[in-house]
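Researcher: We're teaching a course module on how sequence relates to structure. For the next exercise, students receive a sequence and then see the predicted structure as tokens, so they can try to spot secondary structure elements on their own. Here is the exercise chain.
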Amino acid sequence: MLTGDIRNKVDQIWNAFWSGGVSNPLSVIEQITYLLFIKRLDDLHTLEEHKAANLGIAMERRVFPEGKDDQGRDWSDLRWSRFKNFEARAMMDVVAERVFPFLRQLGEEGSSYGDHMKDARLGFSNAALLAKAVDMLDKIPMEDRDTKGDVYEYMLGKIASAGQNGQFRTPRHIIKLMVEMTKPTPQDVICDPAAGTCGFLVAAGEYLRDKHPALFRDEKQRKHFHQGMFHGFDFDPTMLRIGSMNMVLHGVENPDVSYRDSLAQEHDADAGRYSLILANPPFAGSLDYDATAKDLQQIVKTKKTELLFIALFLRLMKTGGRAAVIVPDGVLFGSSTAHKTLREMLVEKHKLEAVLKLPSGVFRPYAGVSTAILFFTKTGVGGTDHVWFYDLQADGQSLDDRRTELLPLEKLGPTPREALSEDEHDKNNLPDALARWFARDGAERGNPRTAQSFCVPKAEIAATGTYDLSLNRYKQVEHEEVEHESPTAIIVDLRKLEDEISEGLTKLEAMLG
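Model: And here is the predicted structure for the students to work with:
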């Protein structure tokens, strides 16, 4: 967890960019990402130097060339550890005219750590701002993985809090709930086809570090973690850079974070490849039929992006693979043929596990749309028995545009460090949802429909004719018992009231007469 001092330093860097003329929050984080990438290259080179010196061998992987370039300038000047000591104008000359062209060259050559740098550009011409940013970043202690990751997450939080481009960030406590419920394993191959900043992949990696530390002592599992487990796709180059850096700073050496228009490109190459999909895809969009991958149209004929993404997940998942995905409420009860077909497919051809209804304020201040999380397993042969429904009413933050934390930090999230009282549960339902999820095949089956969570048999869902999955279709409201007087007592009361009114009128007439 970040100290107040580190947070202040990050705030100072952020404010320096704003006062220096870089006002778009996404541009700020992009420029910081470039600088962190440059710093990481120097760290990699230094690591290789130490390794070679300790073993008495030549360097295996040299990031920066030896000697001088064709103009007689030292290649070593491109290293963070060198240029950070330069005067502001000289630093600007080196970074803008030499370091960034070098980054673009790494990207063109297909270097594993330069893939997303093909169009890297320094987005400002203020030498004093560059010197200030380099100095401030250099003073933030980022030796250990936890601090690096936390610093970057804190910066990404600033994109959201600025209210611009916040759609790229799903609330981290919701992501963590989804990860805790799906329980990633060291053998999983995990994918987010709408990766954005790679929040889902980062959370899955952190879960594995916490729950399965032994995987890093097994060479095969360790290699799989760093090179084969995580796959994120996006078609925004800026998001790819930010997402890739987020993964790297969280200790994943070579994640597959790559360019792909997931709904437009065919998926033959990786159909049936992934064992776990975690995603919050963009919804409320519409594509032309001819702009959509044909293999998705074969699953469900539609133009709606929220339905196409679910078809995509089914295409990408291996048999037995599981998914946790956020969808708009319309997916649960939409009346179009495509909506009904997709719901029927999830219930009849695969195993629909759960519908977790989210409160409508979860994505404020960017959107007030009502959403739910679908949990399902790809089987191809059915398997749905009961569907577990949970009505999440509080996530630990206010559901207005401010999204203020309602409890102390140690009582927030799905796995709080301190147990919650009944009153505190009313402010944070996440731990309760997680606990009930793991009891869905046991005690939860007996819950009444008036409870916060309950199970609905597949036959009842099918009997709706439309495979309606909206929670309100099945939830029952608990009516309070109201005691009524007997009719005789009511008549007596009415006559008594009649007599009082008559007596009052008589007195009033006497006073007026």
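Model: If you want an answer key for the exercise: Residues 193 and 233 are 5 Å apart (CA to CA). The mean pLDDT is 89.
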